[in-house]
Every structure is written in C-alpha cells, then in structure tokens.
Give the backbone structure.
Amino acid sequence: MTLPETASSTNFIRSIIDEDLKSGKHKTVVTRFPPEPNGYLHIGHAKSICLNFGLARDYNGRCHLRFDDTNPTKEEQEYVDTIQESVRWLGFDWGEDRYYASDYFEQLYRWAVALIKKGKAYVDDLTADEIREHRGTLTESGRESPYRNRPLEDNLDLFHRMRAGEFSDGSRVLRAKIDMASPNMNLRDPVMYRILHATHPHTGAAWCVYPMYDYAHGQSDSIEGITHSICTLEFEDHRPLYEWFLDQLGIYRPQQIEFARLNLTYTVMSKRKLLELVQQGYVSGWDDPRMPTLVGMRRRGFTPEAIRTFCERIGIGKNDSWIDMGVLEDCLRHDLNERAPRVMGVLRPLRVVIDNYPQNQTEEFDAPNHPNKPEMGSRKIPFSPVIYIEQDDFSEDPPKGYFRLTPGGEVRLRYAYIIKCVGVVKDEQSGKIVEVRCTYDPQSRGGSAADGRKIKGTIHWVSAPHSIEAEVRLYDRLFTLLNPGSDKGGADWKSGLNPNSSETLKSCRLEPGLADAAPERRYQFERQGYFCLDTVDSSPGIPVFNRSVTLRDSWVKNQ
Ligand code: ATP
Ligand code: MG
C-alpha cells in the first residue's frame, strides 16, 4: 500500500474552493467542525476534523470548533471537554474560534419572530404524533395543520408565551410555513422550535424553547461567516431547507457541501450504539482500547499521525463506501514501524537454565533500538544463566519446518548467544514442561557461530532476574461481523461481537528498560507487535501494556 505523495491530496471540495477563490467569491476559507456534545468523538469524526481543519490549514483560513448544543437533555460538559482534548490530540487548533450554537439562542429567537412576522412560521398545537401523521409519505403529500393559518398576532403572542414558560413540554411547536406537498419531506413545514423545560449546560435555565438542528445550523454558519459548510451526505436533502431559512431571513448564505461519511468494517460508529456497548458493559468505557473512539484509540496506542494519514489515504468522495479496518491498522503499523523503538518482551514465559554459563555471572549486550535507524541509538540488555523465552518457541515434538528450540537443537538468542537444548524438566503431576535446560556456545557472542554453522531460528528472550513483570493485553477487533454498523445488522448487531477481542496475559516478563515506559510511548515488542503503556490501569508495581496492532494483518485470510 502506498501513501499519498503530499500531505493534502486533492479532492472535489478543494476544486470548489479553488474556484471560489479564483472567481473572487471568497477571499478566505472558513470551515467549521460542529460536534454535538452528546458523546465521544470517533474515527468517523476524525475524517471530518481532518477535512475541515486540514482545509483551513492548507488555505491559510480558519476552522471553527462549534458545539451544536441545541438538545440539552443529552448534552454534558464532560463531552465538551473530551471533544476539545481529542481535536487537540489529533493535532488541530481552533485558536480563538470556539463557539456554541447556544451563544446564538437570542439571535435565533429574534429571527424566528421575524419569520412569523413575514408569515413564514406558525405555532402549531398538534401533538408530535399528529404532526407525523400529517406529514404524509414519500409517495403521498402531507396535510396542512388546522393551525397553519393562525393570525400573525396569535402566532407572535403564542411564541412569546412559549418562551415565557407558560406551556408544557410538547404541547406546541413553532413550524416553518413552506409546503406540505413538497416532494422533499424536509420542506413539509419542519419544526423550528420545541418546548423543553430543561437546564442547559451552557445557558442554564434561561430557555425553555430550543431550536431544532436544521433551524440552528445554517444560521450559526451564517453568523460565523462560514464559507464552506461541509457535512455528510445524509444532509443533502436538507440543503434546500438550509438555504430556505437563510434566504427568507435575507442573511449571508454559506455554501453547504456534502461528502460521504466514513464507514469502517468490524466496528460500529453510531453514538447510540457505542453508548449501548458502554452502558451494557460490553466494553470497559468510552476509552476501552477496542472502541473506535479517539480516546479509545489513543489509549490503545494509535498515534495522531497514523489517524491523519488514514484520513488522507481514504480521501473525500461523494459515494458511500466501506473502508476495511485493515487500512486503518496498516496506517498505524506503518507509522510505528518507522518510529517505535524495538524491545524484547516475553508474553508467555518459559524458564530456560543455561547449565554451562557461570552461575553468578551477568553480562550486557548492546541492542539497537531500530534495525535501520542507527540514529535511534542502542541500549544495554543484561544476560544471565536463567532466562525466559516464549513457550511456543520451544517444541518437544516439533512440526516440520519448525526452526525454533527443540530437544538437541540449536537456536540463536537475539543479540546474544547460540544455545542448545540438552533437556527438559516437567511438572511431575501435569507433565507440563516447566523448564528447559540448555548449554550455550561461548564462541557465539553476538549471535554467529565461530565455525560458520548455520542457525536458522532466532528467538527473543529476557534475563529472568533482570526482567520486570507486566500485564499485557492483546486486543483484537471488536466485531467478527464485517458490517455490524450497517442497517442490515438490524437489532441483532451485538451478536457480531468478537468474544475473543481481548485477552489478558499476567506475569509477562519484559526487558528492564521498560520499567521507565512513559505514557504515549509506543514500542515494538520484537516478533509480537506494537505495544504501549496503558495509562488507566498501570500501577507503579505492575505496568500494563496494550497491544496496539499486530506486526501483520492476520485477518486477510478470513475475508
Ligand atoms: P452519530 O450519528 O453517531 O450520533 P453525528 O454525526 O450525529 O454522529 P455529530 O456530533 O453531529 O455526530 O458530528 C459532528 C460532525 O462529524 C458532523 O459534521 C458530522 O457530519 C461528522 N461525522 C460524524 N460521523 C461521521 C462519519 N462517520 N464520517 C464522517 N464524518 C462524520
Ligand atoms: Mg449529528
């Protein structure tokens, strides 16, 4: 797989912007990323963040962070905080330009009054169910509400009293007066305001009427002077409404442009579904390392660079499509291959005693931190007569083509000596091998035999007395189902959860330098994969490491 040549590959949105700058329609580019603070950001949001902030960066413009906080019942400060942290972590900065749709509530209210005065909005007393019934279907036009032609003065009075708190939740709404026969359902007198006696994280108890998304969004874009309002394809049918409000109000109209949202295999991205996984205990939280949330991916060991590369690589298009999870994992693998220092860690230890190595001796070997990057330096790793190797690097009854340690056979210990197996010690009761006895070839320091004999296998190891204990968590994909997030998955989507998406290994042994592992530092455990320190569950005594990604994609064969 090749990486894009430049940091900012072209896409159709860039062509639109280039044209607008050339024609003089705009002198600068102002975009926005408008999350609703009702959940954590996920990898789909990252696509939108990289697009919007990336355009602002490349065109020397601005990208606003705007919280679309029009629904107080689901929104919380906790979400505002984590969203900001995730955007920054991804490497983007909104500067001074952080806004809240709720900052505009007063202005939005006045505009609603202006629309009533123009005869373009009315207060409707129908219930939500009745409004739905009147809306009609795709093949059948809607019916007008009996309240649609209320005198203007009554509308003004009722809307004023809605705001004043005289009416109960759901008893009335303000609707735009457009066209109940429109083939576009969004234009069939959409609701602009509903009554909701709820405290808002930002405006407190100031309001008991709240604007709907469609009414708030375009006007917020207009107030902020957004030039290109970029959203996902499902808003294409809302564009005529976006434009209708702005044109009726006679205010500046940004251009709405739609692009295809990110769909990723083997995971779900809807906030509702992610919340369900959290609340029902399928994962340990929003930041569970298996979650496609940015906090989860960060904890797992993803780098912002890998995510940005991924967003570049998948590109921006107009057609909905599915991206394979393997592409995302590959971006991380590629990044960490370049940057992660190599270390040795034994995940399932088997004790090896080297009989002919002086009992109280230890020595150190110099090991490069990266095989092709001498500038990354090297470290000393201690060696002693008792070491640990991986259980599956020894086989008493080896299958054909097994090049690791076998009775009577030789293997190379990475950076150290060639050893030969001379015996095994078994647990009397279970018959399980608990120890392997070896001799070492003193002439093979560094790993090659003095007589030139070929040693096929090289395995990793740690010195038993020097190594540190750690817990290691091996993560795999959250779902075995290819498209759990598709509508076809239906109510049964959770049946596609991968029962083996997490495996915890206790008593792993790592080379001593890992005692100093810092949060956000990633390592390649040689032959095992890429790992990073878990920031939540590590304790000073027992560090916990998360496997960020394997060295190779083991899923390809399953597809
Ligand atoms: P959900 O449907 O899961 O609740 P959302 O789209 O409602 O997510 P918002 O907070 O409204 O979440 O999203 C903020 C921005 O992120 C929007 O502009 C939206 O278009 C964009 N976005 C959300 N999901 C994706 C995705 N999968 N791919 C690309 N952009 C996305
Ligand atoms: Mg949304």
